[in-house]
Design a protein that fits this description.
alpha/beta, 26 helices, about 650 residues, 17 strands, six-stranded parallel beta sheet, seven-stranded parallel beta sheet, single chain, Rossmann fold
Length: about 650
Amino acid sequence: MSIPQGDPYADLEWAADDFAPPPDEFEPPPDYAWGAPGPVAPAALAPRARDFTGVPAREILREVFGYDDFRGDQADVVDHVIGGGDAVVLMPTGGGKSITYQVPALARPGTGLVVSPLIALMHDQVDALVANGVRAAYLNSTQGPAERQTVEQAFLAGELDLLYVAPERLSAAATTSLLQRGRLSVIAIDEAHCVSQWGHDFRPDYLALGDLAERFPGVPRMALTATATRETHRELTQRLDLPTARHFVASFDRPNIQYRIEAKNEPRKQLVSFIRSIDAGSGAGIVYALSRKSVEQTAEYLRTQGIDALPYHAGLDASLRAANQSRFLRDDGVVMVATIAFGMGIDKPDVRFVAHIDLPKSVEGYYQETGRAGRDGDPAVAWMAYGLGDVVQQRRLIDQSPGDRGFKTRLGQHLDAMLALCETVGCRRQNLLGYFGQDSTPCGNCDTCLQPPETFDGTVAAQKLMSTIVRLQRERNQAFGAGQLIDILRGNKTDRVTQQRHDELKTFGIGADLSEQDWRGVVRQLLATSLLVARGEYGTLALGDSASDVLRGERQVLLRRDVLGRRGPTSVRRTTVSEAVDPGDRDLFEALRTWRASAAREQGVPAYVVFNDATLRALAASRPSSSADLDGISGIGAKKRETYGEAVLAVIAAA
């Protein structure tokens, strides 16, 4: 992955490839040396039963996808694009962005072109479309010449409904020539935030997509993303040259996700306690860590605690990564421990929790990563443990960045916003939505709503800490990190304290009323508000620009008191998939799940490509006895009724 010049993470052991999907997940440059021919996927190119050109959008939705009606803004987006209009679509993960370009691609003459950043994402979406009877295919580096030629010929013959390509491949002159010889119905640029250098997944290859209107005049274009601040929204619109596009901005709220954040105190033990507390049942989970070493150690620790955990990072052998990802997608109850190399291309709907054991770099990244939980709409939890060390490390990396001042400023703003979310005494969801420019009221379902944090007037504590920093600098020309400062304030006569004669300072012992952990909370919160700044390789602390106002007593500092060891709220709204099923239908539901798992293994696709849990629940509740009874069940279109109808009816009849 190309990253902005001066990325502070680029020279670390865990490096840039851990902050993006592994290199082989991306499309290589156009001159990539093709390997041996791969198998052609004839099912993807098979003739469909019906030409949907000109068919009403809702009829396509029912017959192909098995849904009775659109959700939210979907209908307006679809109608606008079918009419030939350009669109910028901001919808949260799980909000149904794919439908907004897949339906127009079927309704308009020609082939829908989807620009997708990840190979894994292309494969998953094509698998799901083929299962619904859509003629879908992709062009990427996993294919040999024979398969690629088959796809190209199908496109030129007008035998494809949707074609997925990466931005690198679309930039190639040969690809443009191919596409100009055929007919395009719509161009959809997925994960469009990647074009913005303000965003968290900046990808320079997206910058070349601004001339699509010139290359393919008259074809409606769409930019779609689940993650965009006002600045990112503005920039992607400008860079993709969509000045007359209609903008559809849905709510960023994911009400089924509960946000929980706590201070680090043996984070792996906290993680195990969290996983056990939510009773995820057969649902899956994702745990994010910053370094490869931490990923592997955490996965091993979870396994020693009886949790089925697998590691995933860019340093693992490609075959092992693929095997672990396959298990995560196909098996129930698997926890993937990963760097953020894992996730963007994962469309698994039943992830019951996403956990972070390190502080994310930005709210955008945090929102997108946590959005991988609960895509099916069932309750899910986003949990995070973070500590002072996370803050100091990231501040240090920003300071050491070779990037220009503006780039460092943006990184600092991202971190400040992330800290503000962690340290808020108010509703976390309200803070999160506010970052994306959306007003809201307290949700009543995050940790700070269910267990409001204890707050106290921290002005005196802040003054004591700041005074110690000033005395060390003026009297000794010294600067230290949080650990030494806390020892001085608490009056701890450690070897280092006595060697430095810090027990002679007037501030020695004046902070004994607070615990070490409370002091770390004070430091962390003062860093979050920029009253303190961390400098240099060792994260020594210095006063921020507004610290003098606090020292003079002209500014009050209100702080939250961390409650360590706090488990999640006992009244957490949590429902496992099985608990969402009526007790009388659970045996049938589990029988359908067993059949689904077997069918998915036989076809080599994730279970949700066959049917999602909501469809299985509907089948268990309605107990259809004939093929006609399958009509109207959400998620069962004509193709799936034809493919799976008899098998499903047999399972129900045997129950």
